[in-house]
Protein: Glycosyltransferase subfamily 4-like N-terminal domain-containing protein
Amino acid sequence: MSLRVLHTVASVGDTYGGVASALHALGDVERKVGHDASLVTLHRPEQGTTLLSSMPHFDVELIRPGRVAGRLHGGRRLTEALHRLVPQHDLVVLHGVFDLTSVVGGRTARRFGVPYLLWPHGSLDPYDLVKHRGAKRRLAPLWRETLAGAAALLCTTAREAELAETFGAEPRREVLPLPVSPPALPDRERARAQLGIDPDARVVLFCGRIDHKKGLPLLLEVFAAAAGPADVLVVAGSGDAKLLERLRAKAAALPCADRVRFPGWVDAAGRAALLAAADVFALLSDNENFSVATAEALRAGVPCLISDNVYLADQLARRDAAAVTPAELGPATEALCSLLVDSAERAWLATAGREWSSDNLDLGVVSERYRELVREVMSTCPQSVY
Structure:
């Protein structure tokens, strides 16, 4: 069934977080199932254009927000574009909840009788709802109408679906993980030589956005307590500049200061080199509804140490496919120590993680789930929703 599918999102700028990366992966899904996919988004060049320029599977329409209305994510120009584009499509997929892109997108879809899916990308999680709590509560009727009209609320993990706050609406909840392909890794020895890492060192890697919720101060403390004299910690990524400055200062005060590296933002080839060089991928986050970075490490066969606040942990723990720990100094240090000294445990987790991710995150697997969901939505929504 070939459909015309319109995706809407407030931004796909590099600094917009995991939503932009998710759109890139979902473009692969749309191509795999044979849909004709379009994307309407706001032109935010100040947020970076690397991800936008690498979305070949979407026909992209950029809306240039006005100086004032742009603060509300679009205004009149966005409304005009959606009124023109929505009737030309069979299905709409809204990304995000708390902006006019989704509110107007949902209203326009309902007006023209086009079913829509709503992908909150963690924004309905209790952890995330704390941000701007007052405004979100005052504007609850807007979010409620968008949620109530959705054919389905798409979440990347079962825990996200269970915890999602829907402001009194009762949408159908579905779980659809993001697809992650196995990265093409360079030779391990060559990667380490290029990175200036000793062949015998054990490397702990964090790769992702520098953000307060990522548990990076804790990771520095855990590494300092658990690492041997030759071990290396790599904290790769960009984001909150002030936080990064504090992390550098904290690392400089540790006994292992000369073995903590901050390479900054890395591209796909750089991430592949880091994964090839790594012995452990670590994410001691306060909250993650999915974690693409963890999924990439699993697919690369890198043993993962994650906090129980990473929602993938529920499934991974059942398969013994990752080391899961509370985001606390004592338990996390014990877990990292065990991984660093026990090569057999690392080998087990590498194999189990690769197998789990292949079974659940492979593009073909995710695409087939999406195809079935869309088929059901298209067959039932005209009677049950509209």
